[in-house]
Here is the input.
Amino acid sequence: MPARSIRSPRDCCRSRSEKRPRPWPSSWRGARSTVSPCAGARSAITDDAEGRITESSAERPTAAAVGALLARFTGQITQAPPRFSAVKIAGERAYDLARDGEVVDIAPRPVEIHRLELIETPDPDHAVLVAECGKGTYVRALARDLGRALKCLGHVAALRRTAVGPFGEDVASSLDALQRICSGRDDVPERAGLLPVEAGVAALPALRVSPGDAGRLARGQAVLLRGRDAPVIGGWWRFSPRAR
Here is the structure.
């Protein structure tokens, strides 16, 4: 029977063969939904509305032109992060270099756009898009590249994140609600809406182990599982002790 040596940081674990920890299954790891009103006709140094405008254009694409282009930016694509981003270049953050006036080349990298849809064009200068994208995607770069492809330029005018992994706005709390919860009072109605810690790993495949193995996994130690207890897939798992 197969045997697997596994290690777990507390309630999740990954196989030894994986190089990097991945806390969510690959089907929705890092996926997020965003509503992004993109402003056309101008390019900003930061690729959003807060940056200095560097170029302008008189071109105004139609809604049909925008919609026809979206398939090109869906699926596996390559994308260069914005100059003002947290990407490290020779040990320095790109935004620090940009603030110092340095011009550096940031190599394009592969990202995945699961869904990209045009919702509306409220006026000739704006388009509202919904995107579901994977880890490492910059929506600012997406707006920038869409504008360049449409020959009208563009940047993000506003951005709203509507989901992270399995968590959507339906389970979100406002900052005011969180502050009331943290006040320590027991009569705060929002407290009932808090999710347990286990909700963060609920979508991971589960495996029951002996109390002794559970204790070793909780301490970050490796355990050897044999026979039917051996997991047959890699990635992250959640563990709970089984009764003796």
In short: The two ends are 23 Å apart (CA to CA).
